[in-house]
């Protein structure tokens, strides 16, 4: 038998090829890469324009976002008047989907400018008619708050002086130099109190009343913070004046936020007939929103007990939904006026600037 031998170089080459084939046959197939998952949708973003005092508990906000697979973005736009101006200027290209915080002192202007879309929220059926100031439901009531005189109880007890129980009392000589108020041209609280005097005394009767207050050494400051926390003797400011224009809820917060626990508030609100002005704050869906359904859901949420019960300790305002329950401190210490002063929103819109300017001439001249 004859054998044929390959040269050594060719044998080595053949061996290399055979080993390569063997290794190739044993090599595992490459692992398949995981598929690339592209989200079909991201959470919708609802933009809500508010005044600077807006506040909401994180847990309450999370409840809405989780229930609606959405994220809420808040745009704080100054005080109520400044916020409304921004919304009006941007009505053709709205800055938000919903606006919250316009009150009854500016309501007619908001409605006349046509910035809202109507929405007949189901919860409206349960609200008092006195709060539903827009028959077309473009602006829906969310909360209320009463601007009232507040009294330092200790001062009057120590001086054996009867506290005032009416606006007329404030002009009495026994109260000379005791009252501090906010400027209505720079403070919504001051504007509400000015409107209380307009409603109580009429026009021009309110100017005669303010002339008496000016002669009685009323102190006018720019805003609530200075009035209550610096000039008022019944608060942490420990100022010299025992009567201040504040809120019907202020005595409750003297208990809730007292540095040292107290059994009762050191202050009291005057809630006699025709002494307080009731502010009502509204929310509305801005015309041109791209998230109409989500905006409706947000309005419904603001009117729900969950949101309504969170407001008092967040923003010092009170529910419009009768099913919302108040914190026990409010149930015990809150005084609510039975007959606050009423001024029609249309009258406020027509005369607001004239009333302020006439007040300025009388009080700040």
Could you say what the CATH architecture of the largest domain is? 3-Layer(aba) Sandwich
Order of helices and strands: HEHEHEHEEHEHHEHEHEEHHEHH
Question: How much of the polypeptide forms β-strand, as a percent range?
Answer: 15-25%
User: How many discrete structural domains?
Assistant: 2
* Mean pLDDT figure: 88
Per the CATH scheme, the topology name of the largest domain is: D-Maltodextrin-Binding Protein, domain 2
How many β strands by DSSP? 11
The largest sheet is: 11 strands, mixed
Rg: 33 Å
Find the structural class using helix and strand composition: alpha/beta
Shape: globular
State the name of the first-level CATH class of the largest domain: Alpha Beta
How far is it from the N-terminal to the C-terminal residue, by CA? 135 Å
Percent of residues in helices = 25-40%
Helical stretch count?
13
Walk me through the structure.
This protein has 365 residues and is an alpha/beta fold. 38% of the residues lie in helices and 17% in strands. The N and C termini lie far apart (135 Å). Strands 1, 2, 3, 4, 5, 6, 7, 8, 9, 10 and 11 form an eleven-stranded mixed sheet that branches.
Describe the structure using short key phrases.
365 residues, disordered N terminus, 11-stranded mixed beta sheet, D-Maltodextrin-Binding Protein, domain 2, 13 helices, 38% helix
């Amino acid at each position: 038998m004859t054998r044929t031998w390959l040269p050594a170089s060719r044998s080595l080459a053949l061996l290399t090829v055979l080993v390569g084939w063997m290794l190739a046959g044993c090599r595992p197939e490459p692992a398949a890469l995981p598929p690339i998952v592209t989200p079909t949708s991201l959470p919708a973003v609802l933009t809500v324009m508010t005044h600077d005092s807006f506040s909401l508990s994180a847990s309450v906000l999370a409840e809405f976002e989780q229930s609606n697979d959405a994220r809420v973005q808040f745009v704080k736009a100054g005080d109520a008047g400044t916020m409304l101006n921004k919304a009006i200027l941007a009505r053709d290209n709205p800055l938000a989907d919903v606006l919250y915080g316009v009150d009854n002192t500016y309501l007619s202007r908001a409605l006349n400018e046509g910035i809202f879309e109507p929405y007949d929220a189901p919860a409206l059926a349960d609200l008092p008619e006195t709060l539903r100031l827009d028959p077309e439901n473009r602006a829906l009531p969310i909360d209320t708050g009463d601007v009232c005189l507040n009294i330092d109880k200790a001062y009057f007890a120590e001086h054996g002086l009867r506290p005032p129980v009416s606006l007329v009392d404030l002009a009495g000589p026994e109260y000379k130099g005791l009252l501090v108020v906010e400027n209505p041209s720079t403070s919504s609280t001051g504007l509400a109190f000015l409107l209380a005097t307009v409603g109580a005394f009429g026009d021009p009767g309110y100017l005669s009343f303010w002339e008496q207050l000016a002669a009685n050494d009323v102190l006018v400051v720019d805003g609530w913070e200075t009035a209550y926390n610096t000039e008022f003797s019944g608060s942490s400011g420990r100022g010299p004046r025992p009567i201040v224009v504040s809120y019907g809820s202020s005595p409750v917060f003297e208990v809730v936020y007292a540095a040292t626990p107290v059994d009762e508030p050191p202050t009291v609100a005057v809630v006699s007939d025709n002494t307080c002005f009731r502010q009502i704050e509204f929310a509305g869906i801005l015309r041109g929103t791209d998230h109409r359904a989500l905006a409706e859901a947000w309005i419904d949420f603001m009117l729900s007990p969950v949101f309504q019960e969170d407001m008092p300790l967040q923003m010092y305002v009170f529910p419009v939904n009768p099913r919302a329950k108040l914190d026990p401190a409010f149930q015990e210490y809150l005084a609510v006026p039975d007959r606050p002063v009423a001024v029609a929103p249309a009258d406020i819109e027509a005369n607001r600037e004239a009333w302020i300017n006439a007040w300025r001439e009388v009080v700040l001249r």
